[in-house]
Amino acid sequence: MRCPYCNYKESKVLETRDTDNHSIRRRRECLKCEKRFTTYEQLEKTNLIIVKKDNSREIFDRQKLLKSVQIACQKRPVSTEEIEKLAIRVENELRNAMEKEVKSKKLGELVMEELKSLDKVAYIRFASVYRDFKDVKSFKKEIENI
Predict the structure, then answer these.
(1) If DSSP codes are grouped into helix, strand and coil, which group holds residue 129?
(2) What is the DSSP letter of 27?
(3) Phi first, then psi: what are they for 48, rounded to 5°?
(4) What is the helix (H) or strand (E) element at residue 14, kind and residue range?
(5) Dist. CA 10–CA 2, nearest whole Å
(6) Rounded alpha-carbon distances, angstroms, from residue 11 to 2, 17, 59, 100
(7) How far is Cα 13 from Cα 15, in angstroms, rounded to an integer?
(8) What is the separation of C-alpha 11 from the centre of its chain, rounded to a whole number of angstroms?
(9) Deepest in the core among 71, 90, 104, 143, taking most CB within 10 A?
(10) pLDDT tens digits, residue range 23-51?
(11) Rounded to 5 degrees, what are φ and ψ at 123?
(12) Bridge-partner residues for 38, per DSSP?
């Protein structure tokens, strides 16, 4: 690791900590100028492919997932932090399955499962779009299932 102050190639690690966003924080000291700096290391993840209903494929995008969950949670007592944690849990679940390709149906079911325990109204909102409710009966049926 090069020192950001003097560009020297060697430093020593003074402290290592895990962070909340799945990275490692290291406090370092340059062996030449003795200045301290912080580095963050993050595991490089392979691309996760989502297979959509029409069999088209796209790379998993956590921001897209966050946006759809945020829309479902609009004007609900759900914090941004809770939404971000939900997205991390869903992504981790998909990656832990050790599959390179995941059907969008599985992704949607995971999100609905998480939303159901987080906020029932947000769950119904998300389900109405995901399951493409056509009428009030569809809403009523889903509400009765909760």
Answers:
(1) helix
(2) E
(3) -105, 125
(4) strand 11-18
(5) 6
(6) 7, 17, 37, 37
(7) 6
(8) 33
(9) 90
(10) 899 999 999 999 999 998 877 677 899 99
(11) -60, -50
(12) 27
Within the chain, residue ranges assigned H as helices are 62-72, 80-96, 104-118, 120-130, 136-145
3-state secondary structure of 23: strand
Residue 140 phi/psi, 5-degree rounding, is -60, -45
- Sheet strands side by side (includes 23-30): 11-18, 23-30, 36-42
Amino acid symbol at 98 = M
């009030």: which residue's tokens? 136
CA distance 25 to 41: 7
Quote the pTM value: 0.62
Beta bridge partners of 51: 57, 103
**Strand 101-103 vs strand 49-51: parallel, antiparallel, or unpaired?**
parallel
DSSP 100: S
- Rounded to 5 degrees, what are φ and ψ at 32? -100, -60
Q: Which amino acid is at 121?
A: V
Rg (CA), the chain: 21
Q: Are 23 and 42 in contact (CB under 8 A)?
A: yes
Tens digit of each residue's pLDDT (9 = 90 or more) over 119-144: 989 988 888 887 777 777 776 777 77
